Amino acid sequence: MNEDKIQGQWKQLSGKIKQKWGKLTDDDMKVAEGSTEYLAGKLQERYGIARDEADRQIKEFDQTL
Known about the structure:
Strand content: under 5%
Shape: globular
Order of helices and strands: HHHHH
Radius of gyration: 10 Å
Number of strands: 0
Largest sheet: none
C-alpha cells in the first residue's frame, strides 16, 4: 500500500474507510492519521481477524481507490 497516498488523502479516505469497516470510530480515524499499521491493528481488534487478513483487506481496499 502506498502510505504517502493514504496520508495525503486521509480526510477524503477516512469516510470511505468508515463505510467499508463500520466498526471503526472517529477516534480510530483521528489516531490512525493514514497509518496502515494502526489501521490493520484496529481491524484485527474490532473484527477479530488475523493480521494477514487485515493487511489483505487493506490492500484490496487500496486497489479500489
